[in-house]
Amino acid sequence: MNINVLCIFPEMFSPFVDFGIVGRAQSKDLLTIKLINIRDFATDSYGTVDDYPFGGGAGMILKVDIIVRTLDSIDEKGDIYLLSPRGRIFNQDLAKELSKKGTITLICGRYKGVDERVRDFVDGEISIGDYVLSGGELASMVIIEALARLLPGAVGNSASVEGDSFESGLLDSPRYTRPGIFRGKEVPSVLLSGNHKEIERWREEEALKITKRYRPDLLMET
Ligand code: SAH
């Protein structure tokens, strides 16, 4: 998969892009992340990418001409998404949908946001939640991290994505590792039983219990 990211702070993506599954997906050629600095497409010698808002008010606005110039420089854009509090809320379903696309392009806003006319050049808008960040860079990293996990072959033991929260519409079941007893707290005995069928059943029951307790809304959706 190819992900193009347009932003004014590409340095923010380092070291994120080099670590964990995102790093591994790139070294296995499953993922290519292209960071494109909007400032490189400024048309004046100051590298101006933003300007004062028409009508006044606080905060600078990223300029539509510079953003579109940056977009025009990319040969293969795929679907283009603007990171924006107005967008579709990012979740595992959207992550799955995006991970199946060969190429996507993410546009990160900054300051007070982007000129409204940028929206005429995108295929969709994505929000990572109902709060306001100072820029789309972190939001893009969240999306890239969630997508990388879903690329076939990216997660070492591919089975380890199975059972993850939201994969089956439920939260994950409890997980334990050694020691078997810690300060008097024991690991549920079924996990030590070696009976895989029983373990599977226990995990399903626990996942359902946990979802009912913490996120009953997930059960209503289906
Ligand atoms: N004035 C805008 C916020 C601008 S914040 C408003 O109130 O809607 C600057 C940039 O940060 C935005 O252009 C967007 O790219 C990014 N951003 C802020 N919050 C975000 C969120 N919840 N999800 C995704 N991107 C976000």
Characterization of the model:
This protein is an alpha/beta fold. It has two domains: 2-150, SPOUT methyltransferase, trefoil knot domain (Alpha/beta knot, 3-Layer(aba) Sandwich), CATH 3.40.1280.10; 163-221, tRNA(m1g37)methyltransferase, domain 2 (Trp Operon Repressor, Chain A, Orthogonal Bundle). The chain contains six helices and nine strands; from the N terminus they run βαβββαβαββαββαα. The strands form three sheets. Strands 2-1-6-5-7 form a five-stranded parallel sheet, sandwiched between helices. It has a two-stranded antiparallel sheet with strand order 3-4. It has a two-stranded antiparallel sheet with strand order 8-9. Helix 3 (92-99) packs across helix 4. The longest helix has 19 residues, at 196-214. Bound molecules: S-adenosyl-L-homocysteine (SAH). S-adenosyl-L-homocysteine is lined by residues 83-85, 108-110, 112-114, 127-129, 131-136, 139.
